[in-house]
Structures are given as structure tokens and as C-alpha cells.
Amino acid sequence: MRSAIYEAKMTHAKDAEGAKVRRCFIDQHAGHLRTAGRFSTRCELGQLALRGNNNRLPAFPMSLIDYDGSALGFPFSRRRVAAKFAGVTGWLKHLEGAPKRFVAPLCVLIVTVVAEVDFLSGYETFFFIFYLMAVILGVWFVNPGFGVLMSALSVAAWISSNIEAGARYSSYFVPVWNALIMFVFYLIVVWLLVKVRDFNRELEERVRLRTESLAKEVRDRMRLQKELIEAGERERARIGHELHDSLCQHLTGTALNGHLTGQKLAAQSLPEAAEVGRLVELIEQAIEMTRSLSRSLSPVEWLPGRLALNFQELAANSSELFNVQCRFECHESGPLPEAEVASHLYHIAEEAIVNAVRHGKAKNIVISLDATEEEWVLNVTDDGTGIPENHQNSKGMGLRIMAYRADLIGGTFSAGRQPGRGTHVTCTLPNPSNSQEKNGN
Question: Which one of 100, 214, 269, 363 is separated from 331 by 20 to 30 angstroms, measured CA to CA?
């Protein structure tokens, strides 16, 4: 298409001779308004003329808000238009919730007001496009039949207002023909609106069903993951009982037999008695290690007032089992977590200790629990080699299990390197009693 030149007559306050003419080029494909010179702060839009060959070119859409309209002297910009559009969308949402008995009189009122303005402005002014507001509202918020009724009422109001304003026709066929053309146009608009409305409602229904399906899938996945964790804990408990009731008893019997054998060898003054005694000591050490492992695998009893005691036992068992220095600190200025939350915090701390010993080669581990009125914060710090920088890409399950447990109780989980040396693992969750008090107030 041939390039078109848009001549804009711009008012310049400092020009004594008159207005300057600046040329603007329109990129029809991008729809952007570009300036060939500097614009003044005012633009007389009424004097814009589109010129080309023979001074006649078909009008085509032009975007005046692709760039900031305020810089061109226009009273609108993208941000302002977006704000106005959001306001209109919100108004339509409120209108959708309004009963039909409220929307129907509103449509009739719109037709009446537009007809009155059409009458006062004279028959030479074309106002038929403004009747579409009532037609659109009637179709969208009531039903298509009411939209057709509004179309007929709008046509009758338009023709009547023009006749009352003094319009004269050469024959009765002219207003009838005009009314028929306008009514057919409105019917086309009604048909298009019905298609758009049905498509919109179908799309909303699909989104609703898909959302429900995804929510159900998430609930099922959460339930399955919870069942897996519970099954894992039951298996841990079973293994712990087996270690205590079977392996420990077997090792105890073996140690007893070794002790008796050592006594017999010592009675005969044989040198093998000392070796048997050393063997018995190793078996007794194995018994203690097995008992510690059994206690760590067995479920913890969360009776009232035992939270700090259970964490202290965890620190003591970890120190004995892994040959490290592990201690527990509790800073209590608010209520302590309930049994379910405390159990997840316990297992998070337990997993953090195992990771610190196994991967970080830590020798000193500190477990701290801060309980306030607003939140609970569990921290596990160590002096090991530190967690890798790219631990998010790690294939290990320890961090993922801890993060999942934190998510189950509505908390946030983080793990990272400490300044200097070591790793910190933190789980923070809000105190629900504080949230209930705020909701109550």
C-alpha cells in the first residue's frame, strides 16, 4: 500500500506567526505513530487530514496509545486506558451478579435516555449506534429474546425521535426501509453476542471443570504422599521393634555365652580368655548401637510437656550413635507446637542430623527451637563441609523430604551454607493460635 502522510497542524505557544506543521508517519503494519519532529504540548485533532494520491485514501486504524499519549498531548496513555478498562471490567462483573429484574429496567432506561438525547440533538445527528448499549446488556445479562425486544424498541425509538425532531420523508417506504436495515443490523449484533456469550460460558465451564479436576488431583496426591510418609513411619517403627526384640536379644545372648566362655578359659589360665573378653566388649558395644538405632527408628510419644524432652533425647541418641557433639536449645516465649506439628519438626531435625553427619562430616550439631506467639522456627546448624551450592539440582531425597514435611504443616523450608563453614536448615511456620486470635478480633 502506498505510504500515507498525516499532516498535523500543531499549535506552538512561542510561534508568533501561527501554528507549525509537523509531519507524522504511520506504520500501518505496526500501528505506531512516529514523529518526524518535535511535537508541542497541544494537538488540534480537528485539523488532522489524511492525504495521499488525489488527496483520497481510505481511512485505516491507527494506534495513538502504543506510546505514552501524554507526551503527544493526548489526555490518555496505556496505563490510563488499562485502568479505565479494569474499572469497566469490574463494573461488568458486578452487573453479572445483578438480578434480571434490575438489568431489564436499566436497558429500557438507556433506550429512553438515548431517544431523548436523539430528539434534542435533531434528526440530522446519527444516534443509532448508542442504542446498542441496551441491546448488548439485554443479550448478555438477560437473554437473546430480550435483546431482540430491545432491538425493536431501539428502532422504534430512533425513528420516532427523528420524526418528532422534524425529519420529513418523501414516502412511508423510506423510514420503514431505514428501520428494517437498522433492525437487521441489530439482529446480527444479537447473533454475534449470543455466540460470544455461549463461547465465553463454555470456556468458563471448561476452566471450572479443569480447576476442579486439578484440585482433586492435588488433594489425591497430597493424600497419597501423606499415606506414603505414614507407611514409611510404620515401617521404621517395625524395623525398630525388630532390632530391639530380635537382634538385641540375639546379641545379648551371644555376649552372655562369650562371657561364660571367657570365664571358663580364665579358670584354665588359658591366654585366649583375654581375646574372648575383648570380643564380648565389642558385642556389648554392638548391643548399645543397636538399641540406639532402635530408639531412633521407634515412634516418639508426644505427650504434653514432652516436646523439649524428645528433642533432647534425639540430640543424646545422635551423639551416641554418630559419635558427634549434638545439643538441643529451646527458646520458649509462646505456646509449643501440637503433637502432629512437633512430629514433623522432629523428623526434619532428625533428617538434618543424618545429612550433616553423612554428607557434611560434621562434628558439632545444634538443634534450636524458637517458639513465639507469632511463629515457630526450627534451626539445625552444623560445622561440616557445607551444603553444595547447586543442592537444588541434587538427586538426593533428604532435602526434598524435609521440604515436603514443612509444606505439610504449612511452613517454609530453607537450607544453605553458613558463613565460613557448615550448613543451616530452617523450618518456619506461623503459630495457628495467633492467626485464630487475629481472625477473632
Answer: 363
